[in-house]
Amino acid sequence: MIRRTFLALTAAASLAAPAFADGHSKDIVDTAAAAGSFETLLAAATAAGLVDTLKSEGPFTVFAPTDEAFAALPDGTVESLLLPENKDQLTAILTYHVVAGKVMSTDLTDDMTAATVQGGEITIDLDNGVMVNDATVVSADVEASNGVIHVIDKVIMPTGG
């Protein structure tokens, strides 16, 4: 179940609006699962026990790393995070990618910060495209019944995480 919570959009092209154009009747988890390119994110969300939360009413804004973003982490990182003894660290990383409320790209301003569900803050930079911390937004405003997904090309880490 949690497997379908976070959206790991790997191929930016395959994440274009047509892949999600179904009237956003699906929640964030099901939208990500239907995209077929968020397997790592969904597996991580499942391991962290976050699927039910991401299927709840929300709304949530999820900055969803692609499968390629997870693959770019140092060897063994994902496998290590998926171990039961690392659930707290995994949960912190995943919830750092989530902001309460529905934040569309038109709501963003340069150098704004947003509080994450994890408790830290992310910074938005609009100078060179749209950046969230050091990740680039490759597809924005993928709407779901309980929020919105913005696909990013890197896994962002909370400070100290």
Automatic annotation (TrEMBL):
<feature type="signal peptide">
    <location>
        <begin position="1"/>
        <end position="21"/>
    </location>
</feature>
<dbReference type="InterPro" id="IPR050904">
    <property type="entry name" value="Adhesion/Biosynth-related"/>
</dbReference>
<dbReference type="Pfam" id="PF02469">
    <property type="entry name" value="Fasciclin"/>
</dbReference>
<dbReference type="InterPro" id="IPR000782">
    <property type="entry name" value="FAS1_domain"/>
</dbReference>
<feature type="domain" description="FAS1">
    <location>
        <begin position="25"/>
        <end position="156"/>
    </location>
</feature>
<keyword id="KW-0732">Signal</keyword>
<dbReference type="InterPro" id="IPR036378">
    <property type="entry name" value="FAS1_dom_sf"/>
</dbReference>
<protein>
    <submittedName>
        <fullName>Putative surface protein with fasciclin (FAS1) repeats</fullName>
    </submittedName>
</protein>
<dbReference type="GO" id="GO:0005615">
    <property type="term" value="C:extracellular space"/>
</dbReference>
